[in-house]
Design goal:
The complex is a heterotrimer of chains A (597), B (231) and C (677). Chain B is built from 9 helices and no strands. By secondary structure, chain B is mainly alpha-helical. In chain C, the strands form 3 sheets. Chain C has a 3-stranded antiparallel β-sheet. Classes of the chains: A mainly alpha (597), B mainly alpha (231), C mainly alpha (677).
């Protein structure tokens, strides 16, 4: 593959989503200008996401037009991406207007909504670009498709020829990167395919939809950058950028619960990721003291080869902070508590993206540091840290699943459980275990997306997020009941879905590496969460319909557009569970990178 | 400059840095806290400038200027504005509605906080021993201060009951990390430093916007109101 | 590929076609198509199994399937026997199912999900004995669990108890899987490979602790699948709620795989287990046999009765397996081989008569709409064919000649009694107890099935549903007829299995020559100089009955038969509801075993509103709960719920708490590092 093609394949996953995001921002800018003249009394349609009549109790907030010094958060992550560095500040002014225009038009008039009551009164669609918005939403599939395509193209050469780099080792793709790109692309494709239905149900006006799409694409760009980064500092920046971008996606619905969830999310994740940066700094210090020049002291490939000269004590301190810090973003204890709140309050496609790939991408970042630390310290230290965090998280998730009353929180705790299994796999450390963990990342991403998208539809149909109030889903909406039921069956680790193969591989690897105690304890907790999930899902899905008269004229139909992502995700997970086919070599190569005998 | 002047100035800056963090723990008025935080930002910029002058690196001086602008200028300004937005102007002359602007009932009282800060500083000194032993220069000998401020910042983050005080705690944490980076290895590569600064700025902006939304939804920025999402 | 392999491939293909047909075809065609495919699958499985017991082995390796593991299949005589049994049961039940799932009473059985899962379930029943690596076994085991769960939940729209039964079934199956996974993964780790050949080769290198742990974990998992006490609560819950063809498949083919697993792992792969392990297996089998048949004696729900009877029969099988292991570990292969052969023969016999019992119970439930024996009755005149089939199967279950259960229990007793010559204190204590248990359970089984047959089918109908019953459609009758033919064949011509059994026993590594030989009508135990010819016994019995009947007919008084009204104690004409019911039949037994059963009794008196001395309504409720479920499972579940409620304090919603976790984690790690970790 030529150098130019490589560079293109490595840049496109970051550049295309950024361009899409910028396009949405530019669309907002274009819309904003005509409205600036008729500013005062009319509530802003495009700039104000929540369209409520101004109440007399509105506080006299001074006009907050922030200057162009503060670029929109979506384009801020451009600082990391080299190709679009120049495009960043240019589209600055469009961003903040849509963001800070929001609080201005939101008087505290209407009573705040309860946590389990979704947006009960969606604002009417007053945006003038409704048909264009629909096509714009479908164009949103371009970014995930690009990521998937680049991942597939790289998958044909990287396992044989080894890692490829571009821009003088600024971007790098080895087998681990390619596997994660494929996972991110697949999950993003499913989630973005579910976006139009979600936005249509919310009856979001053009401004809200535009802001939502802008943030989603920026999110995808940040995740691709985190996966493709060759420099550990750039990796950190991309992961921090994902926190910032998703903060407003989590708080999208403007309810009390969403604000609470967004606050907890940003504060806990920022604290955690700050600790991770401290760890990175200390690692940089150790690298500089070992004689590596400044330009490549944070370059992963250099660190991985030269790490045996690092001072062990400093590396230990750095690695502890990194496990704590990146573990926060990956949902591992002790800073895990943001996860159920954020994933239950975010809109369904966003929860799907966060649960499906953000946790995994953050964990993959942790894996990069792990290879460096293992070279410096031997595998024992990180293994103890990771295994401890993983078992603690698994215990918490299993026990709290026993008392769940909200199904989106239930799915979020299930994500914690699966992330802890992935962490255990990497803690065990053999190539079989790491390959199983990577397969688990892919399979879990696909299936969790289906589960969250289905839960979004359940929320739409039943208007409640409580498990106790949802009954007879299979009778009332068969396609949705089957989709949700199969997604939970897959999450429980039953064949033919790939989570069965990966959990089997993890267990075999655990016993084979003589960590029988850890594996046995993990299996026990997995059994407890199995029991909790099965009983709750059975109560939701099975049984007669709650109002037989309502289904007398036929069950609720999901529609092809809404059902397609669900079906595709389940089929892909089942196919992955039957055989990895052309991806086998990629998977084993990725396992070799992280795993050690 | 010669070594002893440099060492004394360095120690002075680090001492002021740590003192600012402890004072933040002690104060209760949010406006005062923000002022002390801005001061700490200026001290951090001075620290970076000192290191730059010592090693004769122009880029480090430029970074110091940037840090000063950001952490002593932009960030306190944003937080101050968020504070002002929440405090309505006094209705009558002697009446002031102070609930938003001060920490009314701290989670951990002041005496215990100060003792905690002292213990955390001791812990930072103990933990940083291998760091200092690896490369014993005057700068690295001051490393424990950076770690102490990190821990004190985290402690502030955990124990404050006002949203903006939590923001200041997070910024203290970040200041501590930046100080550690400068003291240990004269900063991180430029592109990483730029990215980190940008990220911190955006994070504070996000927190400010969330504070406004919180005020609108909950009628105040008390963290204890955020208890509706639970199991 | 030899013909056995051809048959297996054909079976898999038919399963795929059947699943697609079940998912895609509309209503009436769906049931027939799926029934045909499943029947074909069963036939292919039967053929493959028979060929394998006849000496044809094959192996297959599919490296592309199942990521990171690959699929390994291998068939020898032992697995061939189980495949044949499963195939035969699947064939007959599939034919039965085409009739059962049609018509207005079908309910959930005819739905797409159930009909799609049915051929897949049947395929796993046939293929699990063919698994030749840990991953393949677990894959097929889990597919079996999932498909059977979907089948158990077939009627979930009609009754809420179906959903609860499904949850219990799913969780207990997963518990079994976890134990199995732990045991087999430990075995594979110690032996250095996960295929069965690698396990066999590496088994000699296992330390005694590892061997014991592997044995206990694997035996517990397989015992749970076989419905052994105390891991049995799923059995009496799932069987009544599942449709009858599914119950037949589960009881007649799925529980056998529990016994298969123990035989395969303990005898073949591990190469022998410690003696205490075999005593444990024997004890568990004996306990389940007695407990199962007692609970069956108390049950008045017909399908619950049959489910507990399954538990009892598998308990007898495990007694045989345990005894075989005990003899083998003390170096006496001849009685060991005989005991194992008896266990295998009992599995075969039990499969056929239990399938027939469930099919007949299903046809009764479908025709009358009730499952409760107390509400049936009078079915002999209305459903003569079903009554006949039930009687044939009950004869087999009672284990008296000329039923087919007799032969296997006779063999089992022969092996245990002859095994009394084995020296050793353990054998001297355990074996007579086992013989006593077998005798007790046989006696109670007789009571149980006389109750089931008599109370359920004879006398007058005790409810409107029973009075309105009509005979089942021909599809169901053909299926039941096939099974009845199997019962009769096994009863009268046992020798046809003789060589197959010997080869299967040889796979288990028990040297000592074939324990059985037969020339069709006679079964000879060469080493023990005993033989049995059921045909002669049956002939003798028939002759005796004919003689007795003729004698009675000749000496009967001729004369006018006068009709007289029954004495009714002056209380009015007796209604059919006052006749002898299942509960009253079981009451003496319940008194005898009161300490074990601990029935619950509840009297609820509702007085008239105006005066407390006048009674408006009295409600009497008695239930014989599953005592182990009450004493062991409910407290455990309650404790788990309490722990969960306590864990809620970990997620109170306070940001201070959440950040505090992180802070304390950080400080703890830093302290550990400072101290010098």
């Amino acid at each position: 593959m030529t150098h130019a093609t490589t560079a293109l394949l490595l840049t496109a996953p970051v550049a295309v989503p950024l361009a899409a995001s910028a396009a949405h921002a530019a669309g907002g800018l274009r819309e904003l200008r005509p409205h600036r003249r008729a500013a005062h009394a009319l509530p802003r349609h495009s700039a104000g996401p929540v369209h409520r009549p101004p109440s007399p109790r509105a506080p006299a907030e001074p006009a907050q037009v922030t200057g162009p010094a503060t670029g929109g958060p979506a384009t801020g992550s451009a600082a990391a991406g080299p190709a679009t560095g120049s495009g960043g500040p240019g589209v600055g002014p469009g961003g903040p207007a849509t963001l800070t225009g929001g609080p201005r038009t939101e008087p505290p008039g209407p009573p705040p909504l309860g946590p389990d009551d979704p947006a009960a009164a969606p604002p009417p669609a007053t945006g003038p670009h409704a048909p264009a918005r629909t096509t714009g939403a479908w164009l949103g599939l371009v970014s995930p498709a690009t990521i998937l395509f680049c991942g597939a193209a790289l998958a044909t050469t990287v396992p044989q020829r080894g890692p490829v780099t571009a821009y003088g080792r600024l971007l790098r793709a080895d087998a681990l990167t390619v596997w994660l790109l494929l996972a991110v692309g697949a999950v993003a494709a499913l989630a973005c395919a579910a976006n139009p239905a979600h936005l249509a149900h919310e009856r979001a006006d053009a401004g809200t939809a535009r802001r939502y799409n802008l943030l989603i694409h920026a999110f995808l760009a940040a995740m691709s950058a985190a996966v493709l980064a060759a420099n550990l500092g750039v990796l950190w920046i991309a992961i921090e950028a994902t926190t910032i971008v998703t903060a407003f996606l989590v708080g999208h619905r403007r309810t009390r619960a969403s604000v609470e969830a967004a606050w907890k999310y940003v504060v806990i994740c920022s604290a955690g990721i700050g600790l991770a940066f401290l760890g990175t700094v200390l690692l940089y210090y150790a690298a500089r003291q070992a004689g590596i020049p400044e330009a490549s002291a944070l370059d992963w490939a250099t660190l991985a080869t030269h790490a045996d000269h690092f001072d062990p004590a400093v590396t230990r301190l750095a690695m502890s902070l990194i496990v704590l810090g990146f573990g926060t973003k990956a949902g591992l204890a002790p800073l895990h508590a943001w996860l159920p709140d954020a994933h239950s309050q975010a809109p369904a496609p966003v929860s799907a993206l966060m649960s499906g790939v953000l946790l995994s991408v953050a964990f993959a970042g942790l894996l990069r540091y792990k290879t460096v630390a293992d070279a410096a310290l031997g595998a024992g230290f990180t293994r103890t840290l990771l295994a401890g965090a993983a078992l603690l998280t698994l215990a918490l998730a299993a026990l709290l699943l026993l008392v769940q009353r909200d199904y989106k929180r239930m799915l979020a705790y299930s994500s914690m459980e699966h992330m802890s299994l992935i962490a255990l796999g990497t803690a065990i450390g053999t190539p079989l275990a790491v390959s199983a963990a990577l397969l688990h990342i892919a399979g879990h991403g696909l299936v969790k997306t289906v589960a969250f998208c289905a839960s979004g539809h359940i929320l739409r149909i039943r208007r409640t997020a409580r498990i106790g109030r949802v009954r007879g889903l299979l009778a009332e909406a068969p396609a949705l009941g089957v989709g949700f039921g199969l997604a939970v069956v897959a999450l429980l680790g039953l064949p033919p879905f790939s989570l069965f193969a990966s959990e089997l591989g993890l267990a075999r690897a655990g016993f084979a590496a003589h960590h029988s105690g850890v594996a046995a304890v993990a299996l026990l907790f997995v059994l407890v969460s199995f029991a909790a999930l099965v009983s709750r899902t059975a109560r939701m899905v099975l049984g007669p319909p709650p109002e037989p008269e309502a289904v007398a004229d036929g069950p609720v139909r999901l529609g092809v557009v809404a059902a397609a992502p669900l079906v595709t995700g389940l089929v892909a997970a089942a196919a992955l569970g039957v055989t990895t086919g052309p991806l086998t070599r990629l998977l084993s190569a990725a396992g070799e990178i992280v795993g050690r005998h | 400059m010669n070594d002893s002047v440099y060492t004394q100035l360095l120690d002075l800056a680090c001492g002021a840095f740590l003192l600012a963090a402890v004072v933040v723990l002690w104060l209760r008025q949010l406006s005062s806290i923000i002022r002390v935080f801005a001061l700490q930002g200026a001290v951090l910029a001075a620290l970076a400038a000192l290191l730059g002058v010592r090693e004769g690196r122009w880029d480090l001086l430029a970074v110091a200027v940037g840090i000063g602008l950001l952490r002593a200028g932009a960030l306190p300004h944003i937080v101050r504005r968020a504070l002002a937005a929440g405090t309505p102007p006094p209705a009558r002359h002697y009446e002031e509605d102070n609930s938003e602007a001060r920490e009314a009932r701290p989670l951990v009282n002041v005496a215990a906080s100060l003792i905690g800060a002292a213990l955390l500083t001791l812990l930072a000194y103990a933990v940083a021993r291998p760091l200092v032993e690896l490369d014993p220069t005057p700068a690295t000998r001051a490393l424990p201060v950076g770690l102490a401020v990190v821990l004190i910042g985290f402690f502030t983050l955990v124990t404050r009951r006002r949203a903006l005080a939590q923001v200041v705690g997070f910024l203290l944490l970040d200041n501590g990390i930046t100080a550690t980076a400068f003291l240990a290895a004269s900063g991180v590569p430029l592109i990483v430093e730029l990215g980190v600064s940008f990220d911190v700025l955006l994070a504070v902006l996000v927190l400010q916007i969330l504070t406004t939304r919180m005020r609108a939804a909950f009628g105040g920025t008390g963290i204890d109101d955020l208890r509706e999402l639970r199991d | 590929m030899n013909s056995a392999e051809h048959a297996a491939v054909l079976a898999s293909g038919l399963a795929g076609v059947g699943a697609l047909a079940g998912a895609l075809l509309p209503g009436r065609v769906r049931v027939i198509a799926v029934g045909l495919c499943t029947a074909g699958l069963g036939g292919a499985g039967l053929a493959a199994g028979l060929l394998a017991t006849g000496g044809g082995h094959w192996t297959a390796h599919l490296p592309g399937l199942l990521p990171m593991a690959g699929v390994y299949l291998a068939v020898d005589a032992l697995s061939g026997l189980f495949m044949a049994v499963a195939g035969a049961v699947v064939l007959a039940v599939a034919v039965y199912g085409t009739g059962y799932a049609r018509g207005p009473h079908a309910g959930g059985v005819a739905s797409r999900g159930v009909q799609c899962a049915l051929p897949l379930f049947a395929l796993t029943l046939v293929l699990v004995p063919a698994a030749a690596s840990v991953s393949t076994l677990l894959l097929l085991w889990e597919v079996m669990a999932l498909t059977s769960l979907l089948l158990v939940l077939a009627d979930q729209r009609e009754r809420a108890s179906v959903r609860d039964a499904g949850i219990w079934y799913a969780v207990m199956t997963h518990l079994g899987l976890v134990l199995l996974l732990a045991g087999l993964a430990l075995f594979a780790a110690c032996a250095g490979g996960e295929t069965f050949t690698a396990l066999r080769a590496g088994a000699s290198g296992l330390s005694p602790t590892a061997r014991g742990t592997v044995f206990v974990l694997v035996a517990a998992a397989f015992a749970s699948k076989a419905g052994m006490v105390p891991l049995h609560p799923w059995l009496p819950r799932a069987h009544p709620e599942a449709p009858s063809n599914v119950s037949a498949l589960m009881s007649a083919a799925m529980v056998n795989l529990g016994a298969y697993g123990i035989i395969r792992v303990a005898f073949d792969l591990l190469g022998g287990a410690p003696r205490w392990g075999w005593v444990l297996v024997l004890a568990v089998g004996a306990l389940s046999a007695v407990y199962g048949i007692l609970q069956a004696a108390m049950a008045s729900d017909l399908k619950r009765l049959l489910a507990y009877s399954t538990s009892e029969n598998l308990g007898l099988v495990l007694i045989g397996v345990g005894a075989a292991g005990l003899f083998a570990s003390s170096g006496h292969p001849v009685p060991a081989a005989l005991a194992l052969a008896a266990a295998l023969l009992h599995i075969t016999n039990h499969a056929v008569f239990k399938a027939l019992l469930f099919c007949a119970a299903g046809s009764v439930a479908r025709a009358t709409g009730v499952r409760d024996l107390d509400r049936m009755g009078g079915l002999r005149a209305r459903m003569p064919a079903t009554t006949g089939f039930f009687a044939v199967a009950a004869l087999g279950a009672i284990a008296l000649p000329p039923g087919n259960g007799f032969l296997s229990e006779w063999l089992l007793l022969q092996s245990l009694i002859n095994g009394l010559t084995v020296p050793g204190v353990t054998a001297a204590i355990v074996l007579p107890l086992a013989v006593a248990v077998i005798a007790l359970s046989a006696g109670l089984a007789a009571a149980v099935f006389v109750k089931a047959l008599g109370v359920g089918f004879f006398a007058r109908p005790r409810s409107a549903g029973a009075a309105a019953a009509t005979e089942s459609p021909p599809g169901m009758l053909v299926g039941m007829g096939l099974l009845a033919a199997g019962c009769t064949g096994l009863a009268l011509v046992p020798g046809m299995l003789g060589n197959g059994l010997s080869r299967a026993v040889a796979v288990a590594g028990l040297r000592g020559g074939p324990p059985l030989s037969g020339n069709g009508f006679e079964l000879r135990l060469d080493r023990l100089a005993a033989s049995m010819s059921p045909l002669w016994v049956a002939a003798a019995l028939t002759a005796g009955l004919l003689a007795a009947g003729t004698l009675i007919r000749l000496t009967a008084r001729r004369g006018r038969r006068s009709g007289v009204r029954l004495w009714d104690c002056g209380g009015g004409a007796p209604t059919p509801r006052m006749s002898y019911t299942a509960t009253s039949f079981a009451e003496p037994l319940q008194r005898v075993f009161d300490d074990v059963l601990a029935p619950e009794q509840d009297v609820d008196v509702t007085p008239v509103r105006e005066s407390a001395y006048l009674v408006e309504r009295v409600r009497f409720r008695r239930a014989v709960p599953d005592r182990i479920e009450h004493r062991v499972y409910r407290p455990a579940l309650a404790a788990l719920a309490r722990i969960g409620q306590g864990a809620r304090r970990l997620a109170t919603g306070s940001v201070h708490l959440y950040l505090g976790y992180g802070f304390f984690g950080l400080v703890a790690v830093l302290l550990a590092l400072a101290v010098g970790w």
